[in-house]
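stage 2 :: seqdesign
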């Protein structure tokens, strides 16, 4: 998880926090990096869909378009795994399973960016504050619906526990991991299209050595 708990950067109670639309534009460089992450993700999904088309032997846009419309990753993963089992050997199935796990991890981080609530805090001038929707709405209920304009010390302490922080390094790392994942899917297609056994073995090794894939394969193989 690239974001870190707020308390790592500030031991004090939350002060000078603005989470919401009014905070937009106050950390433009960091906001731009969030945009980079979100803009890079459709390329990952497109390459993933093309990889499925390659596995299924479908060289038309219809199958790929249908797959892209199945937005829930659990459904996409099930389709992918079934297609791999029907057409590929166990070694390639393991590789694809590892890539899908890496994809799921990256998708979770992208979803946090797309659906979380961002803001800023005086105590963290070089970071973006982040909250999930459930926690954000809970605080808004207290402040707006219950009209409790002053939070108690206990409420402020609880608020601090709900906050996370994205620093520049966190967002750059996430952006690069998303871009790398798009290339993993792209290179998987190239690997599956290769008939020369020597070249195919080389491409397989390269895919297995990609950091995102290597870490998952290590975990999977340690359980066997």
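stage 2 :: out
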């Amino acid at each position: 998880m690239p974001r870190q708990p707020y308390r790592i950067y500030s031991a004090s109670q939350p002060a000078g926090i603005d989470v919401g639309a009014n905070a937009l534009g106050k950390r433009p460089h960091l906001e731009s990096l969030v945009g980079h992450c979100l803009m890079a993700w459709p390329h990952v999904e497109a390459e993933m869909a093309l990889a499925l088309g390659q596995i299924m032997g479908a060289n038309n846009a219809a199958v790929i378009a249908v797959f892209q419309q199945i937005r829930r990753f659990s459904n996409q993963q099930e389709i992918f795994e079934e297609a791999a089992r029907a057409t590929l050997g166990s070694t390639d199935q393991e590789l694809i399973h590892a890539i899908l796990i890496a994809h799921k991890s990256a998708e979770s981080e992208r979803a946090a960016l797309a659906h979380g609530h961002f803001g800023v805090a005086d105590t963290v001038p070089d970071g973006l504050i982040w909250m999930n929707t459930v926690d954000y709405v809970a605080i808004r209920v207290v402040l707006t619906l219950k009209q409790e304009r002053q939070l108690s010390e206990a409420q402020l302490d609880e608020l601090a526990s709900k906050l996370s922080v994205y620093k520049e390094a966190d967002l750059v790392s996430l952006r690069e991991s998303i871009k790398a994942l798009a290339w993993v899917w792209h290179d998987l297609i190239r690997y599956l299209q290769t008939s020369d056994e020597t070249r195919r073995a080389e491409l397989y090794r390269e895919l297995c050595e990609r950091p995102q894939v290597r870490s998952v394969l290590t975990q999977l193989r340690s359980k066997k």
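stage 3 :: structure notes
- The mean pLDDT is 89.
- The longest strand covers residues 124-131.
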